[in-house]
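Hi C.,

You asked whether I'd gotten around to modeling the 296-residue construct. I have! Everything is below, sequence then structure, no commentary in between.
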Amino acid sequence: MNFGAGVLTFREGLEAALILAIMLGYLRKVGRADRQLAVWAGALSAAGLALGFTLLLQLFGAEFDYPAKGIYEGLTSLLAVGMLTYMIIWMSRQGRYIKGALEQSMKKTVMRGAAWGLFGIAFLTVAREGVETALLLSASAFASSGTATLIGGIVGLVASLLLAWGVYLAGARLNYRTFFRVTSVLLVIFAAAILRYSIQEFEEVGWLPPIIENVWNTGSWLPVGSTLGAVLQTLVGYTSKPSLLQVVGYVGYLVVVGVIMFRPAPKVAAAPQPVTAQQPEKTEGEAKTPQEQIPA
C-alpha cells in the first residue's frame, strides 16, 4: 500500500468532508435541512469530475515512451509539488478561519433562498480538492505502483469520510488549525519525496546533472524492493542510491517550506487611537478672554 497516498487522500478527503459537514450542520441548525440535497448533489458531481480527471491523467501518461514519458512524469510531479506547497502554506495561515468564512457564505446563500448557490459552494469545494488530489495521486503513482497508490488512496479516503461523519453526528468541535498543522508536516515530507522523484526523472532524460551520481548506497542492508524499503519509498521518498542533486533538492525543500510554514503570521497593527483635542496653552503675550481677566 502507498502510505503517502493514504496520508494525502486522508488530508484532502477530510478537508472536503469537514467543509460539507459544516454546510450540512449549518442547514440543520437554521432549520433548512430541506436544502441538504443541493449540497449532496454538488459534492457528488464534483467527485465524478475528479474521478474523470484522474483517469484522464493516467490514460494520457500511458501513451508516452521514454524519454517523453520521463519528461511527462517529471513535469507532472513538479506541478504536483507546486500545488501541494501552495495548499500547505495557505492552510497553515487560513485553516482557523475556514468555518467562520464558510458559515457567513452559507448565511447569505440561504437568505437568498437559491438552491443553486448551495450546489455551487459544495461543487467548487469538492472539485478543488478532487482535482488537486487527482494530480497528486498521479504523481505518487509514478514513484510507486498504480495498485499500491489506489489501495492507499481508498484507505485514506474512507478513513477521512468516517472521521468527518463522526464529527458531524457528534457535533464535536475540531481544532482546524492544529489538524491542518499536523497533517501539513506529513504532506511536506510527501511533497519532498515527489520532488526527489521529479529530479530523478529529469536526470534520467538529461535535463539536470546529478552532480555526484551516488552520494551513498544503502541497498545492501535496506533495498528498495524490501517491504520496509517500499514503505519508506512511498512515504518519505527513500532511495538507496540518491544523487547529490536529489539530496540537495529534498533537504532544501524541507528546510525552506518548513521555515515558511512555521514562521509566525504577521500581526495586524492595531488601529491608532484617536487623539483627544487639547486646548493650546496660552503664551505670555497672548490676550486673555474676558472671563480670564477677572481677578480671583
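If it helps when you're writing up: The chain has one domain: 3-262.

Thanks,
B.
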